[in-house]
Predict the 3D structure of the following.
Amino acid sequence: MGRGRPKGSIADGRSKTLLFQRWQAMLKRTRHNPLYTRRGITVCPAWSDWVAFRDWAISAGYIDGLSLDRIDNDAGYEPDNCRWVTKAVQDANRRPASQWALPQRKIEHSQYPAIWRLRQAGLTLAAIGAEYDCSEATIHRIVHLQGAS
């Protein structure tokens, strides 16, 4: 995708539509949220293109007010696994909160300088957390220890 606007984005105002925002949120979740990335939740290649996603959404019954729901929460975003539903239906299909937690790895003090360097180089907390198999909160605490020393 590169920098700038996502592939298929529109400069004429359509990018401000709720559907476009839902598409962008889906892409962001699957690329940057460890709750998705660590579980291998991805977007099918066709949906990397805004127009392809928009066309599917409309044919699948999208209207403002509905949410994009994955039927199987352990599978990715693709036409056969997604549907447009009300918030009540989506809430009933959520994973239990007890399953949200990711296994955490203990970070040794000897690793802190490398983490600090990655953060100073501009990596996000999420990216560093993924690299060290730990939460953003853990990386946040480590990064802020540098300022206290």
In short: The chain has two domains: 14-96, 109-148. The first helix runs from residue 18 to 32. The chain has a mean pLDDT of 81.
